[in-house]
């Protein structure tokens, strides 16, 4: 059988040398180049199984090489190497389908090797026709990797990247944060708990990366199978944050953000006493913003109408005391301008 061909593009010779060293014991053909244009020529003229490229290079950027490679050779698995500052670009590229996998710099050698192994397996799985589940697992693995590399300010970049995938929630996470802090600010909570509420507000829907964009953005009603997939996003989100040290405490909040205190929520139908205070805060903030935003299937409701809906579900879906605080605090606020209709 022919050896798998791996093509690596980086403007730094040293990086290319270390990649070659990394795979010295593997039975691969490793091609390298410092020039994006040359990489594209190679792909045009011979079969390349895996293409690995740096993002930041003079001239043609990594993402553009991958885009063009996708057209010339759709069967090539595309991997991007990026630094911290490119995390937003990378996650969007994964969402758009330009990039299959992502490696953060400085990379971990074992993970790098595993990513390439997985990429070769993906090629095989694609040929066998069942790649959907694998793709979701890979997206979650990439998200976990991105979060692991993340510093605090990139939490926001990541939450924005998720909103790029789900067009109807643009600005949603920031507003959920604002509403959640309105409630939390009146509870005299320890600062650690407030920090967890902040992260959870920004990242509560991060598990949507595991849900195909065409379902998230479907204009009409969802069928049962589609709903089932969407309802998995709290578990996906909890799973990825559980693996990140500084986000571990937000994991359960993310898991519970669609639960209701009478047990009619999802994914587990947990009741009031079993839910974290932090989760109950995020739930109110999340539902209020969803009600006051345009959705694919309905227009935004006014603040007044949305508050009536929240109040009506007080003690049923939402914690009574928290609803009271929210309504009182919101009444004292100048309302944030309502979100503009989504393009
Ligand atoms: Fe959600």
Sheet having the most strands: 5 strands, parallel
Mean pLDDT: 83
How many structural domains? 2
Work out the radius of gyration.
22 Å
Tally of contiguous helical segments: 16
CATH topology of the largest domain: Hypothetical protein af1432
Name of the level-1 CATH class of the largest domain = Mainly Alpha
Which ligands does the model contain, each kind named once? Answer: fe (ii) ion
Please identify the structural class as seen in this structure.
alpha/beta
Poorly predicted runs are 337-343
List the helices and strands and how they pair.
Blueprint: E1 5-9, H1 13-22, E2 29-33, H2 36-45, E3 50-54, H3 62-72, E4 77-82, H4 87-96, E5 101-104, H5 109-128, H6 132-148, H7 152-165, H8 172-184, H9 191-203, H10 213-216, H11 224-230, H12 233-242, H13 251-255, H14 277-291, H15 303-312, H16 320-331
Parallel strand pairs: 1-2, 1-3, 3-4, 4-5
């Amino acid at each position: 059988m022919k050896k798998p061909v791996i093509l690596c593009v980086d403007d730094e010779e040293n990086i290319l040398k270390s990649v070659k060293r990394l795979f010295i014991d593997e039975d691969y053909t490793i091609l390298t180049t410092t020039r994006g244009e040359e990489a594209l020529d190679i792909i045009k003229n011979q079969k390349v199984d895996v293409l690995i490229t740096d993002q930041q290079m003079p001239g043609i950027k990594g993402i553009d090489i991958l885009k063009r490679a996708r057209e010339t050779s759709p069967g090539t698995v595309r991997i991007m190497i990026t630094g911290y500052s490119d995390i937003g670009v990378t996650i969007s590229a994964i969402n758009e389908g330009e990039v299959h996998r992502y490696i953060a710099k400085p990379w971990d050698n074992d993970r790098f090797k595993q990513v390439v192994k997985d990429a070769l397996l993906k090629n095989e799985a694609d040929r066998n026709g069942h790649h959907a589940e694998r793709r979701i697992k890979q997206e979650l693995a990439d998200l976990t990797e991105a979060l692991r590399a993340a510093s605090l300010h990139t939490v926001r970049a990541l939450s924005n990247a998720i909103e790029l995938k789900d067009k109807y929630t643009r600005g949603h996470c920031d507003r959920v944060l604002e509403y959640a802090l309105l409630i939390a600010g009146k509870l005299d909570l320890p600062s650690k708990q407030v920090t967890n509420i902040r992260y959870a507000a920004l990242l509560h829907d991060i598990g949507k990366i595991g849900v195909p964009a065409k379902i998230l953005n479907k204009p009409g009603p969802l069928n049962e199978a589609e709903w089932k997939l969407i309802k998995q996003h709290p578990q996906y989100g909890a799973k990825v944050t559980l693996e990140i040290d500084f986000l571990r405490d937000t994991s359960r909040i993310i898991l519970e953000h669609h639960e209701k205190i009478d047990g009619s929520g999802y994914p587990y139908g947990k009741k009031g006493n079993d839910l974290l205070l932090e989760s109950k805060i995020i739930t109110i903030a999340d539902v209020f913003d969803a009600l006051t935003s345009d959705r694919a299937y309905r227009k935004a409701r006014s603040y007044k109408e949305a508050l009536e809906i929240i109040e009506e579900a007080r003690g049923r879906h939402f914690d009574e005391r928290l609803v009271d605080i929210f309504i009182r605090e919101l009444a004292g606020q100048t309302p944030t301008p309502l979100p503009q209709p989504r393009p």
